[in-house]
Amino acid sequence: MTRNPIVFLLAQRLSLGLLLLLAASALIFMGTEILPGDVAQSILGQSATPQALANLRNELGLNEPALARYFDWLGGILRGDLGTALTNGQDIWTAMSGRLANTLFLASCAAIIAVPLAIILGVIAVRYRGQWPDKLISGITLTSVSIPEFMLGYIAMFVLTVQFRIFPSVSTIYDSMSLGEKLHAVAIPVLVLVLVVLGHMMRMTRAAILNVMQSAYIETAELKGLRPITVIARHAFPNAIAPVVNVVMLNMAYLIVGVVVVEVVFVFPGMGQYLVDHVTKRDVPVVQACGLVFAAVYIGLNMVADIVSILSNPRLRHPK
Amino acid sequence: MDDTLLDVRNLTIGATVYPPDAAPKDISIVHGVSFTLAKGRVLGLIGESGAGKSTIGLSAMAYGRGGVRITGGQVFLNGRDILQERAAGLRNLRGQEVTYVAQSAAAAFNPAMRLMDQVVEATVRHGLATRAEAEARAVQLFGQLGLPDPDSIGRRYPHQVSGGQLQRVMTAMALCPRPSLVIFDEPTTALDVTTQIDVLSAIKKAIQDTGVAALYITHDLAVVAQVSDEIMVLKSGKTIEHAQVRQIIEAPQQDYTRALVSVRSIDHTEKEPAAPLLRVDNMTARYPGVKLDVLKDVSVQIAPGQTLAVVGESGSGKSTLARVVTGLLPPSDGQITFDGRTLPAALDGRARDDLRELQMIYQMADTAMNPRHTVGTIIGRPLEFYFGLKGAAKRARVQELLDQIEMGKGFIDRYPAELSGGQKQRVCIARALAAKPRLIICDEVTSALDPLVADGILKLLLDLQAQEGVAYMFITHDLATVKAIADQIAVMHRGKVVRYGPKSQVLAPPFDDYTDLLLASVPEMKVGWLENVVASRKIESAGR
User: Fold this and answer.
1) SUPFAM superfamilies attached here (chain A) (predicted)?
2) How far is B93 from chain A (nearest CA, A)?
3) Does one domain contain both B309 and B241?
4) What is the average per-residue pLDDT within A239-252?
């Protein structure tokens, strides 16, 4: 620690992340505990006898005290066992992993396009600040953020599927499809997701760079006779990374955690649909597992943002 | 042969200002300034803040800071009018023909880039040399400027070198593309005096070695006298006087120039030592989480109605001493005695009367006042807090205090933004005075002010001391200020008091090494002073 503060800071962030995840698991468990509804009832239907319901509850272990069930559940997770679904007896991880992979595929496709595009547009907006390219970029991205995503989805579907028949309206993908086929299938949802997250990241990039542009060293760079775009990209942007990364990671987390609506619109077999299906069936273990995975994604990505921010600070990277 | 490099004719510069509750309006900053500069010569631009000296300097690069615009006139560089150039032409001019050395190198270097990348950037981007050639030249310049490890210093980041070194790296950066003109904008103002002298002589030598012409901008006449061939005195965007250095220093023609030359003329006779009002005994302090002691075994005393000047460079612990005395930083060891009673170390242990008797005035009057409060509210606050004054009585007392600080009627309802720098500092003094303190800690209260304004503040402080019998602990890095007002002096270096006593003794030989260095480093308003000091230092170090 005396030699390099970075190692210390990183270890601190990592342990904080794990602690946060533990707290999240407790919150998720408590949340599902106070949910109304009864699993046994929803499995057996309205006409079940009280005796049958009691038997099933006993069988499913629902009569144990909550604390015991929490530690039981937590212990299972630590061993890599997310439990079994109450409704169909399937192993949750087996059922979920395929869905998670699909969601990650969709999210990465959107991120690979949206992140660089947002940064480039942000840089261009700063270069022509107050002029028409800046206003155009801000106008378009703000509009796309303001339209609800299902609306964007239906508009894109109408134009690209109905009018021009370029892409399919249903984005269901299977393991047997080739990469090219998968990409073709998810093109419209990716487009919609890009439009949804672009504005936020672009605005933040623009604001962060503009903030740095007030610095004295930007004047130094301008007085060296550098091109405006060189000044922005070489001198301003590296000092604006920390705030930009934070917003990028927040949006990435949204792409994984918050795409339920888009998945439903395009019948995409991802995590969101999986979660929604099992919430309606009162399948608590699945809901808990999904919640935990989402929490892990959120915390993990924010941790990455923190770490990148730390690494982007030359004072920490190169101590005196 | 025509050896004119820069020919500025009837330059006018304006800016758009946006007052908070009025329509934006255009104001004029520079009103018709003309001068010429020959190749290889150095012209010093001198004036107070707001005189337009930086603005004029930057016009040689056709650059306006913020909302500043060049509104008229011509600027010929090597015979062509650069104000007519388009963007591409200006880019070729900047960083190639004309380069710039900024006041605060610490802020002017990009914190995310290695020094070498920044030093050679202009040279390489303008295609003046290959990267390898530019680096070789940079290393050579680093050596010329007396930087340690010229071969490897370029691999460091800005935060890894000291302020004085950074300023020299910045000079190397300006000289690297072999420009014909360098603009030095207060390059040593932010440095300590002992560092300033090294940087100043390095800059002077580099100018001589490379034969480059320079505009040297500063508010310190003694500094500019060392490096310039001629001096132009500016005031409120107009030329007051423009002549050879020797004439400006020795035979100034204009009243304003004479005032600048003779500034710091305060005469203050030292008072007799007396029983102390404040005693600081064996004080040792450190900041939380830092292993280093910032104050080591410091003991000083202040007598009622007298002034203790605490002198030292940045990092010497002088401001920390103020924080300890006010209770903001409880010390790890030592004792504070005030008026015969021991003061609790921490602020929240002190009684309201303890707080009242010990007031503080800060360096930045700007940030020490709430911009949304009127002068009356600002000065009235301690009156209400300590004495329970309200309404008309409070207002009458505020007006009385305003009269005392020589700011008459009409100021009571103004906001800080409507005051000048000197007036703001006066309001801060009145606020401290309102509490009827017995000791005021003045932390670099004149450092941010122009010399003539600072002079006025010092005179006011001395008058108030005579009227009210208040004692001052005057923290400063400026020895001229110390000479003007101190009764006792404590010289601090690396957390210790290295010299302490009545002014007449502290400022008289024999000196300890550090005080000697400090005194010898204060620029004197004499041509050739720099050479003499540097020469005598060389003899000393050779003799050691």
Assistant:
1) MetI-like
2) 7
3) no
4) 91
- B14 phi and psi angles, rounded to 5 deg: -130, 175
Residue B266 in domain: no
Taking domain A94-269, whether its CATH number is 1.10.3720.10 is answered by yes
How far is the C-alpha of A300 from the C-alpha of A17, rounded, in Å? 7
d(CA B96, CA B180): 8
The residue of B61, B121, B161 whose CB has the most chain A CBs within 10 angstroms, and thus the best one to mutate to test that interface, is B121
Coil, strand or helix: which one is A315? helix
Q: Is the pLDDT of residue B140 over 90?
A: yes
pLDDT tens for each residue of B235-286: 988 999 999 999 998 888 988 888 888 765 667 778 888 889 999 999 999 8
Distance CA A166, CA A297 (A): 33
Q: pLDDT for A94-114, tens place per residue?
A: 888 888 999 999 999 999 999
Residue-level pLDDT at B1: 47
Please tell me whether residues B284 and B256 are part of one structural domain. no
Which of A8, A220, A313 should we substitute to test contact with B (largest number of B Cβ atoms within 10 Å)? A220
- Residues of A within 8 A of B125 (CB-CB) are 224-226, 230
Triad B52, B57, B58: Cα angle to 5°: 100
Cα–Cα distance for residue pair B338/B358, rounded to 1 Å: 10
Contact B484, B458 (CB under 8 A): yes
Task: Report percent pLDDT > 70 for chain A.
Answer: 97
Q: Taking chain A, what is the end-to-end CA distance rounded to the nearest angstrom?
A: 14
B159 part of contact set with chain A, CB < 8 Å: yes
CB-based contact A224 B157, cutoff 8 Å: no
Complex ipTM: 0.79
Instruction: State pLDDT tens for residues B452-497.
Output: 888 889 989 999 999 999 999 999 988 888 888 899 999 999 889 9
Residues spanned by the domain of B173: 4-261
Q: For A319, name the nearest residue in chain B, comparing CA atoms only.
A: B160
Q: Do B107 and A221 touch (CB under 8 A)?
A: no
For residue B445, the distance in angstroms to the closest alpha carbon of chain A comes to 25
Give contacts of B 72-91 with A, CB under 8 A: 90-91
Beta bridge partners of B473: B308, B441
Q: Count of domains in chain B?
A: 2
Q: Above 90 in pLDDT, residue A277?
A: no
Assess B187–A contact: CB distance below 8 Å, yes or no.
Answer: no
Shortest Cα distance from B160 to chain A (angstroms)? Answer: 5
Please check the confidence at residue B511 and state whether its pLDDT lies above 90: no
Nearest to A216 among B96, B108, B121 (CB): B108
Please report where in the chains the tokens 């010329």 appear, as a residue: B144
